[in-house]
Amino acid sequence: MRPLLRTSLFLAALSLLLAPGASLVPGAFAQGAPEAEEDGPGVRFNGYGRSLVQQTGIGGTISDTDTLSVESLSDGEFLLDLAVNAQPNDVTEVQGVIRVRNEFGGFFGSGVTVEVRELWARGVIADVLRYRVGDMDVALTPYTLYLPEADGVVNTPALFRPLREVVYYDEFYTGFNERRLQGGNLDFGLRFEQGIEAAEIKAFVARLRATDFFEVPTRFIAGGRVGATSMRFGPYNSQAKLGVNLAYTWDDLGSGEANTGIRNSVVSFDGDVTVLDRDAFDLHLIGEGGFSSVERAMDMDDPEEGEEEPPVEDDPAFAEDTDTFIEIGLSGTIKGPGIGLSAMFVNVGPEFYSSAAQSKRIDYTRSKSFYNRIGTDRDLRRVSLFDLTRDQALYTFRIADELMAYDPRYGNVLPYGRATPNRRGARLGIAYAPTDGPLDGVVDAALDVAVLREIRGQGTEELKDFVLFRGEADLHVGEYLGWNRALTFTLGSQYESTSRGGNEIETVDLTSLLFEAGVSAEIYDRLDLLFGAKLRSSDGRDYVPVIENFNDVRDFREPFVTNDQEALVGTGLRYRFSDGIYLTVQYQRFSYSDDATPADDYNLNQIFALYTMNF
Fold first, then answer.
1. The Cα angle at residue 11 between residues 8 and 13, in degrees rounded to 5
2. Spatial separation of the C-alpha atoms in residues 575 and 611, rounded to whole Å
3. What is the pLDDT of residue 542?
4. What is the end-to-end Cα distance of the chain in Å, rounded?
5. Strand-strand pairing, 218-230 and 72-89
6. 568: which DSSP letter?
7. Cα 266 from chain centroid?
8. Which of 170, 291, 408, 456 is most buried when burial is the number of CB atoms within 10 A of its CB?
9. Are 269 and 226 in contact (CB under 8 A)?
10. In whole angstroms, what is the distance from residue 155 CA to residue 147 CA?
11. With b meaning 16 or more CB within 10 Å and e meaning fewer, what string describes 201-213?
12. Pairwise CA distance, residues 164 & 390, whole Å
């Protein structure tokens, strides 16, 4: 499908919503739009600051022969993000964030960096149209524009959250699966007199990378969403929420001297139809479906007079892959006991590619900040739970150029989130969060199950089978037990299994287990005692494909074999001065062992103090 046709479909859906009888809704559906402050226009200062000092040491069996690695490393930083927020009038807001950072041990300006971390402006035009330019956070759906969850995480205990929050803050992770982009967006709402209750229209455009003026062209992304909500109808209090989404990524070959580029478009239609809604329970038909297209060609811009025509589909310089996906099922809630149930059928094609939805948070090709190479032979140390919990160097918010590398030990069933290609099967979910009775506010638990299979074999006609169990629970039992202070237990677990039959070479059998547990107990007013543990074990083998041209399998390296275990445990204290301001001092110990190479077993010990302030 060509860009003109894709754009026409999107605009056609928009025109249907702009039907007679529609009225503009001032301020409707404006995410993050400015609101008038009580003190009116003016200039305000706010920001974020932290001080982190830590010491990390290495030990274990590998230290007996490793004479090159230092036994301990100390580092830290003092950081201040100062936000200057100005409202020249009631409908305009501008903000800039200046970051001042000093590395631990720097004196008299040594090691100090100053940079602009964030800059944006937003406002309202004619009390209807809301806009934002500059830095912005955008999300559509899990198949179009979305930030998948991080690896090695199910339900993070309170002990490990401070360092995770440091990483998430620096990488612009908002907690709503939004991606940080730089560009502009518009949104406004409509209200109708009959049939349709309300509608929302959003559009955005952003630059993903700049040209190097030679072989790398500028890359852009644009898209948006048109959504509508019907009025309640029928004897069962039914309602329909429908939407169409577009994410379109392309290279501008007019920038620099590059003569090759891509176009990646993803169009999806999503819906949530309330089949019935009663006081005791409700039932919904939910889903999303659509298609993707990836075009790779020489100079895809329209030729100027006297130039040759661009490649056509039968030209060997032209390549196009298209595929579809669908996710559809039922969800319901038993409102009294707070039980939610869902059952979904999933089919994501082998050639489905959505760069803005499949890019991971973890870049396994990057170097680790601590002990990247260990041992006498200076071998690369595998990424571990220790690194995933705290190492900013591994994380990214960028949209990748193709499917990123992944580690099967931490995510093999859905390494790219729900948009993982070449999967077909079922997903089941159950949640428990009572809204009345003695357990109201005490228990919050969920269990998700996925049973999937490959649609097309990779390197063989045999197909892989996948099983995923993922459960989490938070127990707020302080008040329930008659204790007038907070006491919370946190649990999380994930089990993954990958298997494939065939001959000795084709056979795959890999299992992984991740377990998290933690306790947060308020032992004195605003003083918390923290305990936490993360355990992982993996056993078996799999073949991890080498990807080129986005999601095309080029080759397979030797089998990925694992039989290792990890344990990260720790304890600490946290004092909460007020909301958003706290100090925590912690000790954590990490151990790694591999049954195949016991001489390379090692452990890491870390003690740190972190002061965080939001003001």
1. 110
2. 10
3. 94
4. 49
5. unpaired
6. E
7. 18
8. 408
9. no
10. 17
11. bbbbebebeebee
12. 6
Place of tokens 């202070």: 485
Length of the chain: 615
Cross-strand bridge partners of residue 586: 572, 608
Q: Which two tokens stand for residue 593?
A: 């062992």
Tell me which DSSP letter residue 148 carries.
P
Q: Which amino acid, 291? A: F
Q: pLDDT tens digits, residue range 46-102? A: 999 999 999 999 998 988 887 788 888 888 999 999 999 999 999 999 999 999 999
The secondary structure element, H or E, covering residue 17 is helix 3-17
The position carrying tokens 């969920």 is 446
Cα separation, 292 vs 247, in Å, equals 9
| 3-614 carries CATH number 2.40.170 | yes
* CA 503 to chain centroid: 37
Q: Helix %, strand %, coil % for the chain, to 5?
A: 10, 55, 35
**How many CB atoms sit inside 10 A of residue 319's CB?**
16
Q: How many angstroms from the chain centroid is the CA of residue 576?
A: 28
Paired with 588 in beta bridges are 570, 606
Cα 37 off chain centre by: 32
Q: What's the CA gap between 247 and 419, in Å, rounded?
A: 14
The pairing of strands 379-380 and 545-548 is unpaired
Q: Is residue 148 exposed (0-12), middle (13-18) or buried (19+ Cβ within 10 Å)? A: buried
Q: Amino acid identity of 270?
A: D
Q: What is the distance between the alpha carbons of residues 508 and 464, in angstroms, rounded to a whole number? A: 8
Name every residue whose Cβ is closer than 8 Å to that of residue 384 and which is 6 or more positions away in sequence: 566, 590, 592
Burial class (CB in 10 A: 0-12, 13-18, 19+), 274: buried
Beta-strand ranges (E) seen in 174-259 are: 179-192, 196-209, 218-230, 239-252
Contact (CB, 8 A) for 521 and 507: no
Is the CB of residue 464 less than 8 Å from the CB of residue 498?
yes
Could you tell me if 588 and 19 are in contact, meaning their C-beta atoms sit under 8 angstroms apart?
A: no
Q: Could you tell me which of 146, 546, 604 has the C-alpha nearest to residue 368?
A: 604
Q: What is the pLDDT of residues 113-172, one digit of tens each?
A: 899 999 999 999 998 999 999 999 999 999 999 999 999 999 999 999 999 999 999 999
- Residue with token string 């559509």: 140
Cβ neighbors of 107 (< 8 A, separation 6 or more) are: none
Q: Which amino acid is at 296?
A: R
Q: Say which residue the tokens 């390296």 belong to.
A: 557
Please state the separation of Cα 343 from the chain's center in Å: 23
Q: Is the pTM of this model over 0.85?
A: yes
CA gyration radius, the chain: 26
For the chain, the structural domain boundaries read: 3-614
Q: Please tell me the predicted confidence (pLDDT) of residue 599.
A: 86
User: Hey, what are 369's tokens?
Assistant: 């900040």
Burial class for 175, CB neighbours closer than 10 Å (0-12, 13-18, 19+):
exposed
Q: What is the DSSP letter of 15?
A: H
Whether 243 contacts 270, CB under 8 Å: yes
